[in-house]
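Project outcomes to date are best conveyed with an example. Our students and postdoctoral researchers have been running inverse folding experiments weekly, and each run begins with a structure described purely in tokens. The record below, which covers 460 residues, was selected by the lab manager from last quarter's runs and is presented without edits.
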């Protein structure tokens, strides 16, 4: 499969190139040049497969000659061996609504599903090519933890994780900062998540710097993450065995997870709507409901992994809506940069064929957690509650799957506020709050941060 950048369609890239680069040199995101669609017959065959075999079939066509099918299967098997569920994901019934729990991996959030896979994909590639790289990633809490777990103790790789100082939950931070591995570096930035993300972006676009440390990224724009996430859309659709089109409610921040659903639809999965469920950082909800894609100041919420005003993967949707026209996409990205983008009515109609949206307030989130706990004896984490809240507001309950993206024990402060008790941490985390933490606090100053990273790279 060949890939192109959303900002320049004249150059072709291989999977190997786009995997290691993450972001195109022109600032664009990588997308496949052409997509092959599954027909009825092909879907029928996929339906019979277990999670690992399905993952192999869905992912393989995107990798080209990067890896053999058998080696891919081995990597997938290794990636999901640490999960607490045999079939990786798990269903819960909430009346008519199906909940798809995606948080049974090593760091208790759905990001493990993609990150464990790409950690092994890196190792496979670097061992084969005898290369060394440094991964730098910004996190609003869960990406960093998932990335660290996936990269720790791996050869030829260091990982630097930037999180907003004091703006993520204690458990989220401790899962990252108590990892004892000499290739892991946690940095707390005095700023918010968008600051962290901007720092990483400008490190990438400083080619002299990024080349000097052989820098690579695992943030949610990495295409390998998107394809690993598409797998559970297929898997859950097949498992609920519906004759109808199915809609998915997706707690959304960077538009990565929900974009994986969109990709699934584009390659033939019978999806009706993808519901973009946001917290009070509702730029995507405002964009889809009124066309106003205008960033406001980031608000801190009890669903911190969605406290985002710049939804990076939205560029892929714009490119698609603009029928792969990279000039128009570039123009719109310029408008987004100037915070003046209004989606045209024509484009909105196109978007609404595939997406609905809702935004959920802090109080509503707490009410949903409490309500679901009382009715079903099930504790939802605040992110997952937002997915359910969006369905309730849209009055949808038939043929819907709501994604549960984090384990409730990761957010004890919010859960206890909602139901006056907390959810138990899975066994392996029982002593995490007592473990010693290691992280460096740095100001939101790009030069100082670059200097720190470079120094650590040389020391290591
Ligand atoms: C990252 C994250 C999200 C948002 O996912 P995106 O792909 O950024 O839209 C939602 N919930 C949880 C728990 C997360 O960690």
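After processing, the design step wrote out the following sequence:
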């Amino acid at each position: 499969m060949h890939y192109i950048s959303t900002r320049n369609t004249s150059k072709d890239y291989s999977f190997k190139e786009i995997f290691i680069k993450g972001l195109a040199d022109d600032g664009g995101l990588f997308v496949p040049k052409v997509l092959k669609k599954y027909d009825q017959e092909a879907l029928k065959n996929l339906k019979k497969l277990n999670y690992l075999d399905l993952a192999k079939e869905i992912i393989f066509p995107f990798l080209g000659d990067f890896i053999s099918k058998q080696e891919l299967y081995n990597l997938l098997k290794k990636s999901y061996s640490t999960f607490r569920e045999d079939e990786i994901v798990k269903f819960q019934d909430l009346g008519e609504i199906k909940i798809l729990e995606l948080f049974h991996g090593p760091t208790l959030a759905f990001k493990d599903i993609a990150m464990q896979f790409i950690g092994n994909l890196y190792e496979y590639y670097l061992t084969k090519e005898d290369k060394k790289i440094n991964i730098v990633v910004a996190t609003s809490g869960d990406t960093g933890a998932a990335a660290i777990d996936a990269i720790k103790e791996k050869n030829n790789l260091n990982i630097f994780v930037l999180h907003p100082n004091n703006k993520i939950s204690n458990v989220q931070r401790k899962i990252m900062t108590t990892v004892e591995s000499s290739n892991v570096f946690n940095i707390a930035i005095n700023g918010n998540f968008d600051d962290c993300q901007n720092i990483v972006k400008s490190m990438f676009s400083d080619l002299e710097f990024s080349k000097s440390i052989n820098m690579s990224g695992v943030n949610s724009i990495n295409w390998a993450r998107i394809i690993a996430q598409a797998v559970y859309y297929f898997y859950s659709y097949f498992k609920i065995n519906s004759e109808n089109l199915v809609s998915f409610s997706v707690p959304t921040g960077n538009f990565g997870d929900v974009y994986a659903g969109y990709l699934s639809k584009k390659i033939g999965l019978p999806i009706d709507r993808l519901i973009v469920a946001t917290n009070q950082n509702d730029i995507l909800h405002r964009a889809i409901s009124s066309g106003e894609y205008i960033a406001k100041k980031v608000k801190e919420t009890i669903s911190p992994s969605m406290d985002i005003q710049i939804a990076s993967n939205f560029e892929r949707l714009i490119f698609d809506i603009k029928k792969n026209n990279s000039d128009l996409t570039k123009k719109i990205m310029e408008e987004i940069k100037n915070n003046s983008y209004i989606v045209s009515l024509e484009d909105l109609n196109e978007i609404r064929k595939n997406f609905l949206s809702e935004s959920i307030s802090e109080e509503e989130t707490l009410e949903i957690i409490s309500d679901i706990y009382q009715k079903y004896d099930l504790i939802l984490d605040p992110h997952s509650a937002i997915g359910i809240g969006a369905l309730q507001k849209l009055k949808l309950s038939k043929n819907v799957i709501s994604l549960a993206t984090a384990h409730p024990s990761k957010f004890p402060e919010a859960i206890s506020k909602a139901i006056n008790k907390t959810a138990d941490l899975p066994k392996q985390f029982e002593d995490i709050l007592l473990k010693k933490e290691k992280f460096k606090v740095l100001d939101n100053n790009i030069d100082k941060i670059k200097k720190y990273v470079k120094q650590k790279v040389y020391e290591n």
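The longest strand covers residues 157-164. The mean pLDDT is 95. The training component of this project remains on track.
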